[in-house]
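Need a sequence for this fold. Nothing fancy.
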């Protein structure tokens, strides 16, 4: 086990903006001499979730881009880092208007991977979210050629921006469904949602997991929920060659607190991610 300062760092490499970076308006990413990584984005009405309220999921690409860049600071010169876990706690509301800035740095490195920690601030300097991300070291780097430009559509909300389709709750009749299942979110395979490895971007997987959880436990007049936290584990990639289906299962729906489990299944029928999302009365 070693700390970030106990071994030579690899040269700083900043991947070109991905399709999701452009779609969400994230970047550019900068890395200072101390290894602190930063990027910003601006929100708008399109950052609303399925219940019409500001979506915490809009932070997914920003967090994974900046914390992911921080994990690259701790890599070996001939290696790369891929995300295995992302944990986000919301400390304040996500604005529908205005800017957000994320800053992150490495807090631990060992022979297998790296842990980064960061936070998101709004224009007034208030903390919106704190997050940690584990990266696993792999051989690399991958092909870092800039992706082909993709158009950014005008959208009414975040589901529409991603090209997603909400699917009503299963009735338990399908072989893979359960009577306890909530609604699902289907994302199309698209270069706009891809990372440099031609799989669905980790930030998009986090964003869609949160959106699916909101659809399962939406805010109502009597229960004004907001997302309190998201914990997502990345089990395997979801290729952009097919759709990714985010299935939900509400495990608790109290008057002031709820919990939703979300699984992302690739087009080949393999489990890609599993997430737990908490919903709290604001």
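Here you go.
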């Amino acid at each position: 086990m070693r700390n970030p300062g106990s071994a030579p760092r690899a040269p700083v490499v900043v991947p070109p903006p991905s399709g999701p970076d452009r779609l969400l308006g994230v970047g550019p990413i900068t890395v200072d001499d101390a290894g602190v990584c930063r990027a910003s984005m601006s929100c708008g009405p399109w950052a609303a979730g399925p219940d019409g309220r500001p979506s915490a999921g809009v932070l997914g690409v920003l967090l994974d881009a900046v914390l992911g860049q921080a994990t690259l600071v701790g890599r070996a010169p001939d290696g790369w880092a891929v995300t295995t876990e992302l944990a986000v706690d919301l400390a304040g509301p996500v604005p529908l208007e205005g800017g957000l800035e994320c800053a992150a740095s490495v807090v631990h490195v060992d022979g297998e991977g790296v842990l980064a920690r960061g936070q998101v601030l709004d224009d007034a300097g208030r903390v919106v979210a704190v997050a940690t991300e584990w990266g696993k070291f792999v051989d690399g780097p991958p092909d870092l050629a800039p992706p082909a430009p993709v158009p950014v559509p005008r959208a009414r909300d975040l589901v529409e921006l991603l090209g997603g389709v909400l699917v009503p709750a299963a009735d338990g009749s399908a072989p893979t469904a359960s009577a306890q299942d909530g609604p699902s979110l289907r994302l199309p395979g698209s270069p706009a949602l891809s990372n440099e490895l031609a799989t669905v971007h980790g930030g998009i997987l986090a964003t869609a997991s949160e959106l699916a959880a909101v659809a399962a436990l939406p805010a109502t007049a009597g229960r004004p929920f907001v997302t309190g936290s998201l914990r997502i584990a990345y089990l395997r990639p979801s290729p952009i060659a097919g759709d990714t289906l985010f299935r939900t299962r509400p495990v608790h729906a109290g008057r002031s607190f709820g919990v939703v489990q979300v699984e992302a299944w690739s087009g080949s029928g393999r489990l890609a991610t599993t997430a737990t999302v908490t919903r709290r009365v604001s």
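For context: Residues 1-6, 171-177 have pLDDT under 50 and may be disordered.
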